[in-house]
Amino acid sequence: xxxxxxxxxxxxxxxxxxxxxxxxxxxxxxxxxxxxxxxxxxxxxxxxxxxxxxxxxxxxxxxxxxxxxxxxxxxxxxxxxxxxxxxxxxxxxxxxxxxxxxxxxxxxxxxxxxxxxxxxxxxxxxxxxxxxxxxxxxxxxxxxxxxxxxxxxxxxxxxxxxxxxxxxxxxxxxxxxxxxxxxxxxxxxxxxxxxxxxxxxxxxxxxxxxxxxxxxxxxxxxxxxxxxxxxxxxxxxxxxxxxxxxxxxxxxxxxxxxxxxxxxxxxxxxxxxxxxxxxxxxxxxxxxxxxxxxxxxxxxxxxxxxxxxxxxxxxxxxxxxxxxxxxxxxxxxxxxxxxxxxxxxxxxxxxxxxxxxxxxxxxxxxxxxxxxxxxxxxxxxxxxxxxxxxxxxxxxxxxxxxxxxxxxxxxxxxxxxxxxxxxxxxxxxxxxxxxxxxxxxxxxxxxxxxxxxxxxxxxxxxxxxxxxxxxxxxxxxxxxxxxxxxxxxxxxxxxxxxxxxxxxxxxxxxxxxxxxxxxxxxxxxxxxxxxxxxxxxxxxxxxxxxx
Length: 547
Hints:
This protein has 23 helices and five strands. With about 550 residues, the chain is mainly alpha-helical. Strands 2-1-3-5-4 form a five-stranded mixed β-sheet. The radius of gyration is 25 Å and the shape is globular. The N and C termini lie far apart (about 75 Å). Residues about 360-365 have low confidence and may be disordered.
């Protein structure tokens, strides 16, 4: 049987995957720079299989489960290579595969809309190697999976808008349901998609308005059903297991608590809560896509020339996420991280595809001069959007590395500048510090050969120790079903040691710090100091239970 030559889509997405994995090796394995959120999602998966109390619900209900569940099949490889867990690289593999899938979808959208090969290649490569896309493909964060699901939803929603077939509509709905299991922002994408479905359904069907509205409602229901099932199902599961349907907002580890801790410092650097916030968010979005306004104008013109299904789908799904990023920051519901605006990159790419797509029924032969002018105008518009998308590559890189575009102790500049410019003065907290403090801690604990549950630690903060340890069962942690009662009386449940982070910043949310407010300073009268571990601004203390 002869081997088939790989197609264009396979070549481009395969090339992207290799590049993403290479960057992951450099940034995560070599430089040990990983965002804590990415590493903690690997930890959530790890607790399901390898904790002292392994069970599926250990994946947690504060954050969406799909990024962690996708890591599960990779975790047994730790028997061959422990570093796949200890460094968080399993999450990087998942994000790289997902972003390569996003590249596949971008090229697929361009092919669906008959964009010429040169245009397909340029737009696909410009998306694949946009520095923001490149970094979030490699770092294990959930952005890659989220963009992947959004692009599938956009592609098949546009395909339905042109063909009217039900199967693409169902696929689009399932994709956004998967998006919700990845990121909560998928709610606004689904709402935007429902509106787009209703509008397209009404405007393309003949007949009385009442019948058209009924058809629009039926189509919107088909599209929304998978998403509604995921939304309700996840809320019910959370309510049944942890007695709270929306832990993302009510849990002490959720976004509301994190906002309370970080918002004051972030507001000082971003202008959040003042008129300067509008300038901040505009600079971020233009910094990622400097030509977005012109691309949007050209796309609106393309709508009038028969490409309205693609423009509406992209605007409704991706545009809704971008709009929510701006709204969330301006109203104080999110912090000013650059990554919250990342959806503007696939949005600009999809709109550029719509501009490059040929208009049906517009032939040059036999047309008057006005039609010739329109054709050349379309070509110039296509060239302009390609140049604008390409301009996002260098401009986006400068935006990512600009400390002024990254709130205090966070963002891309904080993670990448120490990797790219190692001789720069280090900030107080370093990306490598969480690796180092975890390693130092387990180098002391593991040789003690402790039994199950003899070290109490809040996994929300102490996951580096758990992932880097060769004896993860020595820890009793947040996902264990007896954690709360053990926390109230550690000695009675056989706990010998308490691992406590310094009571500052997010670490003030640590369960031990909340239950015993002075424990980091003096042991809270229930323990005595054994050792302190410090690295890159990360400070932890190990206490022995008892006086």
